[in-house]
Amino acid sequence: MTKVNRRIAVFGLALCAAAGLLGCSGGSSVSTPPPGQTVTDVYIVGFERNAASINVAKIWKNGVATSLTNGTQNADGYSVAVSGNDIYVAGYEYNGTTGLPVAKVWKNGVSTSLTDGTKAGMAWSVAVVGGDVHASGYEQTGGSGTPYKARAWKNGVATYSTDGSRNAAAYGITVAGSNQYMTGFENNGSIDVAKVWKDGVPALLGDGTYSSYGYSVIVSGNDVYVAGMQLVDGGNGAARVWKNGVATTLSDGTLNGSVAGLALSGNDAYATGAVQNAAGKYIAKLWKNGAATSLTDGSNNAFASGVGLSGSDVYISGYEFNGTKYVAKVWKNGIGTSLTDGTNYAIAEGLFIYVH
Q1: Residue 60 — φ and ψ, nearest 5°?
Q2: 10 phi and psi, to 5 degrees?
Q3: Whole-angstrom Cα distance, residue 50 to residue 346?
Q4: What is the dihedral of CA 41, 154, 95, 166, to 10 degrees?
Q5: Whole domain around residue 244: which residue ranges?
Q6: Rounded distance, CA 83 to CA 69, Å?
Q7: Phi, psi (rounded to 5 degrees) for 210
């Protein structure tokens, strides 16, 4: 599958195979606290490579890591959601028999496969509402070289997919009321076009001039927000947020940029991603209502993958190069803390802020 990956596009590697070891960054979310309770738990998912150069899917709760996989097959966690005492993670793990990635959701560390391993599949996002577990991702239609179709699953059962005639993927998912929203892209025969699906009905986000991608979706009242990017003349990515289909450009594409995470608080919209600097390095960024703040100094490549809020505190997941390896990180109000020690390559893909 040919597509622009949030991480790989931002780091200037252009196009990648969907089943490659570097996946897209996850999204962002925050719970609604019960009255009078203010404990904040920060859940972050991603992977850390082990001594055998295998990516181990991991979840960090308040900085303490737990492995989701045993390190025998490459795996990654892209998105996390918490409901009561239950923790859900969407991602993938390679099948040791077929050598293909299997879309998975882990509940409290126990995995359920969404695809059977005979065709490549990945789960990019998870949302839990009313006891129902919704996930989005993609699955290949056949063997190597065949198109990928965007998929949605509810409680482990596939509910919606594109027709598979052209490449498509669903990177973000959320549920508002009785409506399910997904965002991603679908190829139109010549370019990839960002889309948002409401209960399976697509609406275009990209302008159709150059390829575009939706990565995260949030719904507030009647407003639907999508974070992503669109390529511009010259081939760079422009970081964008669409509100009800109308785009706001956060970076103009003069230098490469992308948005991965979204969070809302009242009338304030927060987005996270990265923008290239003149020296060719990528600076992790937070945008509040379109105004950018740099999280890193630009001396090394970095990316901000997810964002979540608790009161006046802003939490961001991501990663930064330390000169030899990428280090998984969390920022609280702009102050970064490493989740890994830099010995092994590690990426933080997304987060969930659980206020209870």
Answers
A1: -110, 125
A2: -65, -35
A3: 9
A4: -120
A5: 2-28+45-267
A6: 22
A7: -135, 160
Enumerate residues 6+ apart whose C-beta is below 8 A from 321.
Answer: 300, 301, 302, 327
Say how far apart CA 112 and CA 155 lie, in whole Å. Answer: 10
pLDDT in tens, 125-135: 999 999 999 99
Q: What angle do CA 315, 350, 210 make, to 5 degrees?
A: 110
Residue 238, helix vs strand vs coil: strand
Neighbours of 97 (CB within 10 A): 8
Q: What is the per-residue pLDDT across 163-184, written as a single tens digit (0 to 9) for each? A: 999 999 999 999 999 999 999 9
From 146, 97, 92, 91, select the one nearest 118 (Cα to Cα). 97
- Whole-number pLDDT of residue 208: 85
d(CA 16, CA 164) in angstroms, rounded, equals 19
Domain count, the chain: 1
How far apart are alpha carbons 63 and 328 in whole angstroms?
Answer: 10
The CATH number of the domain holding residue 210 is 2.130.10
Which tens digit of pLDDT belongs to each residue from 11-69?
A: 332 222 222 222 334 566 666 666 666 899 999 999 999 999 999 999 999 999 999 99
Examine residue 354 and state whether it is found in any structural domain, yes or no: no
- CA 36 to CA 325: how far, in whole Å? 42
Token pair for 305: 């993958």
Residues β-bridged to residue 241: 227, 248
Residue 76 lies in a domain: yes
| Best CA proximity match to 62, nearest among 48, 47, 44 | 44
Instruction: For residue range 288-333, list pLDDT tens digits in order.
Output: 999 999 999 999 999 999 999 999 999 999 999 999 999 999 999 9
Between β-strands 55-61 and 40-49, what pairing exists: parallel, antiparallel or unpaired? antiparallel
Does residue 173 contact residue 127 with C-beta atoms inside 8 Å? yes
